[in-house]
Automatic annotation (TrEMBL):
The keyword Cell inner membrane does not apply. This is Putative secreted protein (Por secretion system target). Residues 756-829 form the Secretion system C-terminal sorting domain. Keywords: Signal. It comes from the Bacteria. Residues 1-21 form the signal peptide.
């Protein structure tokens, strides 16, 4: 019965809420790996990511913002109740209601009221992918963070981490502390007797072999590091444990892992468990009672009992991802005994899950944080279900030593809290860390907002709310569309082009691919589009373009193969990635492919012209027909230049006969989307946020003072309400009022006329106003763009004072406007 139940849970997760598990295949040669699409986009055609270019782009953005931005703030648009993948949870030993949550691509969030409210605390940093965090037990204001998610799947991971960071004030400010080249960081350990001594386990870069991996140690608080254990250039350290009172005793689990878009190896002879008794200076592999040294060993997890440090548990996988055993030692690792693992939920692809945790108060209570959570109260002899009913794919667990029986769980669906040691739990549903691929806003009703999300389906709100988003279509979600003449007709996509249609406002969906051959090639993120003049006409891209004239009743091909595929390589599907129908002429259709082709038809598909002979051979992310000029089209690209004189945004004024690069002022960074507002401004969504230009790319501006350097995958302008919406990969959705020209230059005189002090502040902050006439509007926003307060001053505005009593510690933004002038000042609140 238990096996049937677990199988049912597994199948349900694949069908409805966790489709990426379906793709976690563990064979060595698997051809295309769909959920590596973000890597594939950026790596085509070289097979490499230019991480140096990414770092340079971040610095360019910071310098540009310092010279004066647009003085506008993004407003958070939800969801909060969906969540996203959590990689680590930490709770200070002296603060029962303070939690730190690290997200796969959304940074770090902190609560001081047990999850009732949260603030992002890592947004000033350039990398929001979190590997592991560690809080000092001697001074809980000290937090160390290792960046870069270590999970092998990566969930469409785009970038590794950029090293270690330290905060001395509970996350208000951060300092970079080296190890920027070690890829992803699996574990951070602080010596219990020396705050300046840390040992870090690094998995290294995910998509290439590299010697910058293994165990690293610092004895001077991160000023310098030494590599203390190196196993091989494909073997990193996935997990570690340290004796709670003796920092010389350290355990490290190595994992041989190779991941490429067409090749995965999740185990090997160099996977193993090591111990050091001299603070990491020397290491010995442990094997007495553990699996032998063979190529069959996969990911290993390790944890030590805080109540009895002689007791440790480890979980071994084989190279195929199945659990090969749970082992226990009672003598500090000298000898091990295999415990019962036959009752564990062995679904395969366990390299995606965290592993064993030991209850800090009882050496016999252990949790296997896995596809689901299972618990043993007798040291692994017997297992039962814990945290029933939570989202699958578990990655983090934390025990609250200040709150009896409280355990927190992090998985692909967010954060859960149990107050009875895992017997039951509730979801903490207010974390804005959803990873979006695509978004859409109903043209008739801007309160109906849709998004296709990684591992959390196609979701929507019908109220414009933050916390009432619900799943309407299963699978990894991609491009949703709503009939612009009928709000009840909805199209939704899951991976590999699985298109569904609803005619009853999302209450039910039926298949909508009649006429599209199963033998055609589908991109993981299949492109679809609707004719802006006729909602009965839609387009669907395989390697060919398909059209329906009866709202997906039947599809017909209207083009030949527009790609250069099929490909024998592994970085391109040979498929259409973008479709755009001109709003000025429905017969004018542009198409872009993942292997660099751009095509146009001027007669509705009867004839096609390849217009990309002078364009870069890069993955096309967007083709966009101008809404104002009939023959003008823009194209954006992912990837990097690698020394070539190529750009990421191109414009043609003659339907593609000639092109100009309008991105010469941009850094070498992937561009994922482009849109045009009613003022003629261009906005681009990039891997470092949103940028805009008023002059066709001669000059670019950073859009919004409060958007972190998060990947922006998709953008949408809702024309009726005049709002620009963006879908981010890890920080949910934001919106921006563009009813006014937001790219008009902010008044630098206003910024200089007003000074703010003290900053940082605790209880009060003052604005000293110079010689200004007219009304002054002062609004306070938190980092998510949520307005905290707003006040209009008509008189006596020379010196204004504001109370900060209601604000928690963190970063805030003060938006000040005076007529058509505006400025934004950043305020740090420390309490």
């Amino acid at each position: 019965m238990l096996r049937l139940l677990l199988l049912s849970v597994f199948l349900l997760s694949i069908i409805s809420c966790n489709p990426s598990s379906e793709e976690k295949i563990t064979t060595d040669k698997i051809g295309k790996t769909p959920h590596d699409i973000m890597f594939m986009q950026r790596a085509y055609p070289t097979g490499e990511l230019n991480t140096a270019a990414y770092a340079e782009a971040i610095q360019w953005k910071k310098q540009l913002a310092q010279r004066g931005g647009t003085a506008v703030l993004w407003e958070f648009a939800g969801p909060t109740n969906v969540g996203g993948r959590i990689t680590d949870i930490e709770i200070p030993i002296d603060q029962a209601e303070t939690y730190y949550v690290g997200a796969a691509s959304g940074g770090i969030f902190k609560t001081t009221d047990a999850g009732a409210t949260w603030n992002p605390i890592f947004d000033e940093q350039s990398m929001l992918s979190i590997g592991d965090m560690e809080i000092s037990k001697n001074d809980t204001a000290i937090i160390w963070v290792g960046t870069g998610e270590v999970n092998a799947g990566g969930g469409s991971l785009a970038y590794d981490g950029n090293g270690m960071f330290k905060s001395d004030d509970g996350g208000i400010s951060w300092a970079a502390k080296g190890l920027e080249n070690v890829g992803s960081i699996g574990k951070v350990l602080i010596d219990p007797n020396d705050e300046n001594t840390l040992i870090v386990g690094a998995m290294g870069p995910l998509f290439r072999n590299d010697v910058n991996r293994g165990v690293y140690k610092t004895t001077d608080g991160g000023t310098s590091w030494e590599q203390k254990l190196f196993v091989s250039d494909s073997t990193g350290i996935i997990d570690m444990a340290m004796h709670p009172s003796n920092g010389d005793i350290v355990y490290a689990a190595s994992w041989e892992r190779i991941r490429r878009p067409n090749n995965r190896q999740y185990g090997g002879v160099t996977s193993g468990l090591y111990r050091s008794t001299d603070g990491g200076e020397t290491w010995a592999e442990l094997n007495n009672g553990l699996p032998p040294t063979t190529a069959a060993k996969g990911r290993i997890s390790i944890d030590i009992s805080q109540s009895n440090p002689n007791v440790l548990y480890t979980r071994y996988l084989d190279a195929n991802g199945s659990i090969s055993g749970v082992y226990r030692t009672a003598d500090g690792g000298d000898s091990w005994i295999q415990m019962n693992s036959s009752q564990l939920n062995n679904v395969g692809f366990h390299w995606w899950f965290r592993g064993i945790y030991v209850d800090p108060t009882d050496e016999d209570v252990i949790y296997n944080v896995d596809f689901v959570v299972q618990k043993s109260i007798d040291g692994g002899a017997n297992w039962s279900t814990a945290f029933p009913g939570v989202h699958v794919d578990q990655h983090a667990l934390a025990f609250n030593t200040q709150a009896q029986n409280e355990v927190l769980l992090g998985n692909d669906g967010g954060l859960y809290k149990s107050t009875n040691n895992g017997s039951a739990s509730v979801k903490i549903d207010n974390l804005p860390i959803t990873q979006f691929y695509r978004i859409h806003i109903d043209a008739q009703n801007d309160q109906k907002r849709y998004g296709g999300s990684q591992d959390n389906s196609t979701i929507r709100t019908t109220t414009g709310g933050m916390a009432d988003w619900n799943t309407i279509y299963g699978g990894d979600g991609f491009q949703p569309l709503v009939d612009h003449a009928n709000t009840n007709v909805i199209y939704a996509l899951s991976q590999n082009g699985n298109l569904g249609k609803s005619v009853n406002n999302g209450n039910g969906f039926s298949g909508a691919t009649n006429g599209i051959p199963s033998g055609d090639r589908n991109n993981w993120d299949t492109a679809i589009a609707m004719d802006p003049a006729n909602s009965q006409i839609l387009y669907y891209g395989t390697q060919r373009l398909f059209q329906t004239t009866n709202a997906a009743g039947v599809w017909n091909a209207i083009s030949p193969d527009l790609s250069d595929g099929p490909h024998t390589g592994n970085l391109s599907y040979g498929t259409i990635t973008s479709i755009d129908v001109s709003t000025l002429d429905s017969n004018m259709i542009y198409v872009g492919t993942d292997d660099g082709n751009v095509w146009v038809t001027l007669d509705g598909g009867n004839n096609w012209n390849n217009i990309s002979s002078t364009l870069p051979n890069r993955w096309v992310t967007k083709v966009f027909a101008s809404r104002d000029e009939l023959n003008t089209v823009y194209v954006t690209y992912s990837g990097y230049r690698y020394g070539e004189d190529t750009g990421h945004v191109y414009k043609s004024s003659d339907n593609g006969s000639n092109w100009i690069d309008i991105s010469t002022g941009l850094p070498d960074i992937p561009v994922n989307d482009i849109l045009e507002d009613s003022f003629g401004n261009l906005f681009i969504g990039t891997d470092i946020g949103v940028l805009g230009t008023t002059d066709e790319g001669n000059n670019w501006q950073v859009i919004g003072e409060n958007l972190p350097s998060v990947v922006v995958n998709d953008m949408h302008i809702h024309e009726a309400s005049e709002y620009l919406y963006i879908g981010t990969y890890g920080r949910s959705i934001y919106k921006l009022d563009i009813s006014e020209d937001v790219l008009s230059v902010a008044n630098s005189d206003l910024a200089e006329t007003i000074s703010m002090y003290p900053n940082p502040a605790s209880e009060l902050v003052n604005l000293a106003i110079g010689d200004l006439t007219g009304d002054l509007q002062v609004s306070f926003y938190d980092q998510l763009g949520r307005k905290i307060s707003s006040e209009l001053f008509s008189e006596d505005k020379n010196n204004l004072q504001f109370s900060l009593q209601s604000m928690q510690s963190g970063v805030y933004f003060v938006h000040i406007s005076n007529g058509n002038s505006r400025t934004v000042k950043k305020l740090i609140v420390k309490k």
